[in-house]
């Protein structure tokens, strides 16, 4: 049973899915870390694969960029394919000076400049948060891995190129970094009573003169991928 955006049949996809933004990063994770990986989706080149990590079935699929894109794929994974948990493995831009490229952020919550939650018609502002059990495991795995990481609030923005950079205003509220997907993923997971966590690698800084090349972005996120895989392994 396919959807307009995913040609997989039910059963092709594991209960837990890692989601990088870039479909080629999904291929990289499958090629590098999964055994017996089988591709389940090619629609719109949004590649998805299911394989085995230390004997446990895990899937990895691209989300695309932005909240509408991850919103479509996550909703379909949760509602059509029996997925219980999604771990986003993405990149972000640092908003504070003590966070550097290649550092990792576990997003306990996501703030937003988006109107994404408007369609729920809530009488206030929705706070999008990670699933605590996933965050707790990821925190442990990141600690064991010995990498530089922080747990905190991030901004999910609808705008990549902004004339009115909001960095200082968000940073004054303790927001560590910006990306474009987590708020939607956390909100959809909450609505559907599913689990979600966003693990981000800092690819650039909006307050320091640091950034990663596209090739480094695609291949250099090994620490984050290993934290996500170990978290998925323990969670399921
Ligand atoms: N802005 C938005 N999303 C991002 C960025 C950024 O600077 N870096 C990585 N993802």
Account of the protein in words:
The chain has 7 helices and 10 strands. The protein has 236 residues and is α/β, with parallel strands linked by helices. The protein has one domain (16-235): Rossmann fold. Strands 5-9-8-6-10 form a 5-stranded mixed β-barrel, surrounded by 4 helices. The two termini are 24 Å apart. The model has no long low-confidence stretch (mean pLDDT 95). The structure holds hypoxanthine (HPA). Hypoxanthine binds at residues 91-93, 157, 160, 178-180, 203-204, 206.
Any key phrases for this structure?
236 residues; alpha/beta; Rossmann fold; 5-stranded mixed β-barrel; 10 strands; globular; binds hypoxanthine
Helix/strand-derived category reads alpha/beta
What compounds sit in this structure? hypoxanthine
Sheet with most strands: strand arrangement: 5-9-8-6-10
**CATH superfamily caption:** Nucleoside phosphorylase domain
Q: How many DSSP H or I helices?
A: 7
- The low-confidence runs, each spanning 5 or more residues with pLDDT under 50, are none
What is the CA–CA distance across the termini?
24 Å
Number of domains: 1
Percent of residues in beta strands?
A: 25-35%
The number of E-state strands comes to 10
Please describe the biggest sheet, giving its number of strands, its sense, and whether it closes into a barrel: 5 strands, mixed, barrel
Mean pLDDT: 95
Helix content: 25-40%
N-to-C SSE series? EHEEEHEEEHEHEHEHH
Question: Summarize this, please?
Answer:
The chain has helices at 23-33, 67-80, 132-145, 167-171, 182-191, 214-219, 222-235; strands at 16-19, 35-41, 48-53, 56-61, 85-94, 104-112, 128-129, 149-156, 177-179, 195-205. It has 236 residues and is of the alpha/beta class.
